[in-house]
Structures are given as structure tokens and as C-alpha cells.
TrEMBL record:
<dbReference type="Pfam" id="PF01300">
    <property type="entry name" value="Sua5_yciO_yrdC"/>
</dbReference>
<keyword id="KW-0808">Transferase</keyword>
<dbReference type="InterPro" id="IPR052532">
    <property type="entry name" value="SUA5_domain"/>
</dbReference>
<keyword id="KW-0548">Nucleotidyltransferase</keyword>
<protein>
    <submittedName>
        <fullName>L-threonylcarbamoyladenylate synthase</fullName>
        <ecNumber>2.7.7.87</ecNumber>
    </submittedName>
</protein>
<dbReference type="InterPro" id="IPR017945">
    <property type="entry name" value="DHBP_synth_RibB-like_a/b_dom"/>
</dbReference>
<feature type="domain" description="YrdC-like">
    <location>
        <begin position="14"/>
        <end position="200"/>
    </location>
</feature>
<dbReference type="GO" id="GO:0061710">
    <property type="term" value="F:L-threonylcarbamoyladenylate synthase"/>
</dbReference>
<dbReference type="InterPro" id="IPR006070">
    <property type="entry name" value="Sua5-like_dom"/>
</dbReference>
Amino acid sequence: MAKYFDVHPDNPQPRLIGKVVDIVRNDGLIAYPTDSCFALGTQLGNKDGMERIRTIRELDDRHHFTLVCQNFAQLGQFVIINNAVFRAIKAATPGKYTFILPATKEVPRRLMHPKKKTVGVRIPDHVAAQALLAELGEPMLSSTLLLPGEEEPLTQGWQIKDELDHSLDAVIDSGDCGVEPTTVIDFSGSEPEIVRHGAGDTARFE
């Protein structure tokens, strides 16, 4: 059964954040809120956690997992960014965007796109998510909590606990979060490509 953590939206309780991070570090899988919508998250090197996400969402090998980072310095360790792309991404973070970029050697091969050797990265603008990432000290391997056959992600912590109680180790509820997935921009080619129109404004990338 998943543990349920009621985290304050403006001042996350360090004790609760610490407990959630302990679960992540012990190969747990969590559901947590972001500025776009709820996400599934596990530790970067947790192969079993990644497979559990695949099972819950019924994903194939071509799915781009996302490394959710605390800040730009952390993001820069895991993706290759030239100056023009750096400026574009820096201006849009933190925010409701996922960026697909060539991965560095820091990224485990199984997390990369099998052919393109790319990975998704994002920096959320959400207090509870930022508190988690700060305590964890590294990016969290994540994917939008969008269940198979559903048009929209789950948006309520209690609902997630109810539906995925036996598939998760923890659910963080921090009040309202976004209801729309991130906008996904692929910077791995010569021109930015909008892969998914979502919560982030695409005008700056068009």
C-alpha cells in the first residue's frame, strides 16, 4: 500500500519531505505534484522503478523518460546544450516545459531514446517538487501520471492513492497542481520541434 503524505503547498514540512526521499532512495516509486500535473518518480538508477512506470502507463521502449531537475546547473550535467539552446531553455525555466536533448555519459543508457541517444529534462516551478529534488540531491526519473486509455492525467492525490494504491510506494498531496502535461520541445535536431502542445506557451519556440 502507498503511504500518503499531506504536504503544505507553500512550506513543505522537512520531516515529510525527508520521509518521501527515503522511500525514493530505497528504490520506491512515488506520485508527486508538479506545476503541470502529477508525475511518477523514482531514483535515477532504479531499473525496477523504471519498469514499474512502464507497466503502470503501458509504455514501449521508444518512450522518452524525463529527468526532473532542481535547477539549471543540475540539468547541464545530463544533456549537451549549445549556446543558442542554452539561452532558449534558460529563459523558459523553471516552467511547464520538457526539453529533449542529446544525453551526456552521466545518463544511464537504458534511459536514452534507443536510436537518438536523447533524454527529456525539465525544471518544475512547484514548491513541493523543488523541496523533494533539493533533499534528494539529484534528478528524479519521471513520467507524467497519465493512465492508459485516459485523455487527461489524474489530478487529485486521494484519487491517485485510491487507484494506484498497490502500484506505488508513496503519494504526495500538496493541494492543487496543474491539469495539463508539459509542452515538449525537441532540441536534438537543427531546429526546435514542438513534439507536444501542453501547459507551456510555445510562441517563444516557433
